[in-house]
Structure formats: C-alpha cells, structure tokens
Design brief:
Strand content of chain A: under 5%
Radius of gyration of chain B: 23 Å
Number of helices of chain B: 12
Largest sheet of chain B: 6 strands, mixed
Structural class of chain A: mainly alpha
Oligomer: heterodimer
CATH superfamily of the largest domain in chain B: P-loop containing nucleotide triphosphate hydrolases
Number of strands of chain A: 0
Strand content of chain B: 25-35%
Helix content of chain B: 25-40%
CATH class of the largest domain in chain B: Alpha Beta
Number of domains of chain B: 2
Number of domains of chain A: 1
Structural class of chain B: alpha/beta
Order of helices and strands of chain B: EEEHEEHEHHHEHEHEEHEHEEHEHH
CATH architecture of the largest domain in chain B: 3-Layer(aba) Sandwich
CATH topology of the largest domain in chain B: Rossmann fold
Number of strands of chain B: 14
Distance between the termini of chain A: 24 Å
Shape of chain B: elongated
Strand order of the largest sheet of chain B: 6-7-8-3-9-10
Radius of gyration of chain A: 19 Å
C-alpha cells in the first residue's frame, strides 16, 4: 500500500510546496472573485432581489457562496493548467516515464489542487460573519466537507480538460466557454426560481447546481434562513459525490489515453 | 543474451500520414555509449519518445535488457533513467527536493533515499548547492542535476535527448566526460541523441538518422573511413556555376551545402593547387582537412548538388 501511496503523496506535496513558493498565485485566485463579489454584490444589492429569497439576506449575501465556489473553481483551473505545459516539456514528462500508474499521478494532482482550493476557500470563510452568516461547529464541519468535495470535483474537471489540451490557449477557451458558464448557471449568481423555463432546466442538469446548493445548505445549517427552492440535501450530496467520482475517473481515463 | 542489450526491430512510427520513423533496427550492448545523430526532423526525437516509454510505436518492437517495451512497460520504466531535451526539473524546488521527489516516484524512501541522494550530490559535485532552488543554478549545473536525478534509482539504461542543447562548449565537454565515466564505471548503457558532430565523435558507435531512416551505423572511425582521402571546402560568390565547372574539369562530385562547395578527393594538397590554378578568380577561400562526421553526414544525407542531375543528362 505504501508503495502505491508514495508517488501520490509526493506529487501532492510538490503542488503545495510550489504554491507556497509562488504566493502571488494566492492573490490571483482570490482577488478576482472577491472583486466580483464586492462590486457586483454591492451594485446589485440595491436593485436586485433574488426571487424566492427573503428580503433580509440581500444580494451580497446571496452571492457570497457563489463567490467561494468561484474561488474554488479558479484555484482548480490554475492548479491544473500547469499540466498542459509540463506535459509537453519538462517536469511531467519525467513523472510519466517513472513506474507510476496514471491513476496515481492524477490522484496526486487532484489532491494537490483540492488542498490549494480548500486553503483559499477557507480564507474566504472568514468573511462570512461580516455579512451575517453564523457558524456552529456542525455547520463548519459540513461546510468544510462540502468544500472538499467541490474542490476535488472541480480540480478533476480541470485535469480532465488539461490532460487532453495541447496548449494553454485551448484551456482558456474551454474555461471561458464551459467552466465559467457552468458556474454562472449553478445558482451561484442567480437562483433558478425566476429564470425562464429552458434556463431553469439547464440549471437543473448542471451538476454544479447541486454543489452550490449543498454548500449553501451547509453554510446555513445552524440558522433559520430561507434559501429558496433548492435541491434537497440528499440529492445535492449524492450528485456532488457522483460528480467527484466521475470527474476523477474521467481524468484518469484521459491521462491514460493520452499517454503510453 | 537479450538481457544485456537494447534491441530495436523494424520500428516504424507515423503521425497521421507522415512517416517519422521508417523501419529502424539496431542493437546496443550494455556498457556502450550509443549516439543517434540527425538534424531536426530526422525522427530522433520520435525514436527517443518511444524508447523512453512516452509514446507507443505504430509498429515494430523494442526490447530493453530482456523486457519488451510494449508488454512489460513498468519493468522497462524501472530500468530507464531519462533526461529529456526540455529541462525537466521543477525550478521552484531545491536540488534535494527534486531528487527526493524523483526517488519517491521510484519507490525509494527514508534513510535509503537520503543516503542515495547525498551519494549522488557528492558524485556530481553539487553538494554545496543542494539547498538552492533550481532556478538559481546555471544551465550547466541544472543539466548536471538532471543527470544526477536520472541516475538516482540506479538505472541500467540512461537515455538522453540532446543533453548538451543550450550548454556552452566547455560544459558540453565536461558532460561528455561524465557520461563516458558513467558508462565505464557502472557498465550501464548510454543512448543519446544529438545534432552536434563533436558530441557524436565521443561515442562508441553512431547511428545516423535522416528522414526517419537509419542510414548508417558504426564507430566514428568506421564512418569517417567511408570517405576516402580528404575533404575540401570552397567558398565562392557563385558556387553553383563554379561547382559545375569543377565537376566538368576534375573527377570529383562537388556537393553544395551552406553556401560552400564540399568536395571529397584523394589528396587535397594537389587538388587545391590545381583547382585554385584553374579558377583563380572565382574562389574566395579554400579549406581542407580530414573528414569529420559532418562530412559523412553530408555525404550520406545531404542534398546532392544539382550537378548530379546535370551529369545524368
């Protein structure tokens, strides 16, 4: 067992040490969502009342969980985009010719990205009390658990894309065309309640909708707050877990198919 | 027998319809430094990717020290130490961290790994830089760390793709010395690719690749012996007409390369005297000497001068 885990942990450890030595990355993954949150949140708070949401949690509060999920998504993207370059030239080639199974390489990378995303997501959790979200211990544990699942799933989604990309430009295109819309239509930005029928359906089919719902529910677990018509706890957790498993398998499959 | 050599048989690789490797076969025994020489696009990087298990071949077989590369890939990977052309160290990690990461990938850990690392740091004379980030090292030192890393798990075969690219001449020579002593002291098989003739000269045997084909294979001495006598290089403002004129007048085949005429002849001193006497106004400079691998390469692969066609008419 140890011989299986050693490559996984060393790949994981490397992702973290690299991140620690390039701390500007911390800023880049957090800054943009934070600016979005403050500008869009404050700007829309006055004029936009999310449908199905009580008046009290204003838009800036509604948008908060979405911002955390965006930080997770951005970190996952930044953590996986290096795969594209490192595979063509450099570091990853050396990993690929080592006697390490592809699932181990992907697992190490996924755990690395997950850890980084979690660290940054947790930084944002410190802002929650300022907009009136109060944690109990159970709520905090649930929140961290859901964030871990979300981070793992999103990192694997990033890896799945990165392993089949030839260039980082291609990755950026995918990010703008697929990843950002997935986030936009997850209930992070606006609830499905008021959306036109077709859009509500797209949101219903979007796995991230369930991730955002689970995250919202975990944040408000201890408090009595109306959070609109969201998928149930069970369904959300089921789908987000399934999302993790499928993206991990997909990433492993892609990595195996793309390499010898 | 096969456990002491690399055997490549009828190796072919296509990228779509483009044939990058065309039925290449050769054998390299343990303890030898073998060099694949060829220009960019000759197929040597494709061959390297296949040998290093990065990419499966379209057809043909490779056996590395008794293990079939396509069937027993994991066993082959344990035997190989690979240095890619593109720097493969993580520049944000220290030298020791890079080595430790590599060791973990190969299942080494703890005391065993640490002692192996200090052994290599000492052997490659990089102990005093062991805690520096790789990005702080010079190109030559980085390459040395890469080779140390490739040797960490005691591979039986060391593969290097253009190991001296980006290094200056002095460092290149140092590198070659390292490789020669490695092959000798550890009886490992060293296979490298290069487009540098002086690097190829230092190897035990050289295979010349061109357009995906292995055109010749032998010791540098054997290959050079294929060229009789001397090689004369003539520079001129008007190489093409001069080449035609020389071919008409003397019994030689001028080849036009890189703005000069390259001519093989029995005894250069007589030929140079005669040719300068015959075309005093057309010749700018003349150089001559014993053939090098570059001459062999041009003889075997270089675009034959237009004269060859004229001659056939």
């Amino acid at each position: 067992m140890i011989s299986f885990l050693l490559p996984v942990t060393t790949i994981w450890w490397r992702e973290i040490i690299r991140f620690y030595r390039q701390r500007s990355r911390l800023f880049s993954a957090i800054a943009q969502p934070l600016v979005f949150w403050i500008l869009i949140g404050s700007g829309l708070s006055a004029s936009f009342q999310p449908s199905g949401i009580a008046e009290k949690p204003g838009y800036i509060e509604y948008f908060y969980p979405g911002t955390v999920v965006l930080v997770l998504l951005f970190t996952a993207i930044f953590a996986t985009i290096s795969v594209v370059n490192e595979r063509r030239e450099g570091f990853l080639q050396n990993v690929l010719v080592a006697p390490v199974a592809r699932w181990g390489i992907v697992l190490g990378q996924a755990l690395g990205g997950t850890t980084l995303a979690l660290l940054q997501g947790v930084l944002l959790l410190f802002l929650a009390p300022f907009i009136g979200i109060r944690f109990g211990i159970i709520s905090l544990i649930l929140t961290l658990g859901v964030m871990t699942l979300l981070a793992f799933g999103l990192t694997n989604l990033g890896l799945l894309i990165a392993w089949r990309m030839d260039s980082t430009q291609g990755f950026h295109a995918i990010m703008n065309l697929i990843l950002i819309p997935i986030w936009l239509l997850s209930g992070a930005f606006f609830p499905s309640a008021g959306a036109p029928g077709w859009l509500a359906w797209v949101m219903k089919l979007n796995p991230l909708t369930y991730g955002v719902a689970a995250f919202r529910r975990s944040l408000y677990f201890d408090t009595e707050t109306t959070i609109g018509n969201m998928p149930t706890w069970t369904l959300s957790l089921l789908i987000i877990s399934l999302f993790c498993i499928l993206t991990y398998l997909g990433a492993t499959f892609t990595a195996s198919a793309e390499t010898n | 027998m096969s456990e002491n050599r690399i055997t490549v048989e009828n190796l072919t690789h296509n990228y779509g319809t483009r044939c990058a490797l065309d039925n290449v076969s050769f054998t390299v025994p343990r303890g030898e430094i073998f060099c694949l020489l060829g220009p960019n696009g000759s197929g040597k990087t494709t061959l390297f990717k296949i040998l290093s298990t990065l990419m499966p071949p379209t057809s043909g077989s490779v056996n590395i020290l008794g293990h079939d590369l396509s069937i027993d890939t994991k066993a082959v990977r344990k035997l190989l130490g690979v240095v890619f052309q593109h720097p493969g160290l993580d520049v944000k990690l220290t030298v020791t961290e890079n080595l430790r990461h590599h060791g973990h990938l190969y299942g080494f850990r703890g005391k065993n790994l640490n002692s192996r690392i200090s052994e290599l740091l000492e052997r490659f004379d990089i102990e005093n830089r062991s805690d520096d980030l790789v990005e702080e090292l010079s190109g030559g030192l980085q390459r040395r760390v890469e080779i140390a890393r490739a040797m960490l798990h005691s591979p039986q075969v060391l593969l290097l793709d253009e190991p001296s690219s980006g290094l200056d001449v002095g460092v290149r020579r140092q590198l070659s010395d390292y490789l020669i002593s490695l092959a000798r002291s550890e009886n490992i098989l060293v296979l490298l690719t290069t487009h540098l003739m002086d690097e190829a000269e230092l190897c035990n045997r050289v295979g010349i690749l061109d357009m995906g084909k292995l055109v010749v294979l032998g010791t540098p001495g054997e290959l050079k012996a294929q060229i009789g006598g001397d090689v004369v290089l003539i520079e001129s403002e008007n190489c093409k007409t001069l080449g035609t004129a020389i071919a008409d007048r003397f019994d030689v085949f001028p080849v036009f390369t890189e703005n000069c005429l390259r001519i093989e002849c029995e005894s250069a001193h007589e030929f140079v005297r005669d040719v300068v006497a015959a075309f005093p106004d057309d010749i700018e400079t003349v150089r001559f000497g014993k053939p090098t691998l570059e001459d062999v390469f041009i003889k075997l692969t270089g675009n034959p001068f237009v004269l060859e066609e004229d001659r056939r008419d």
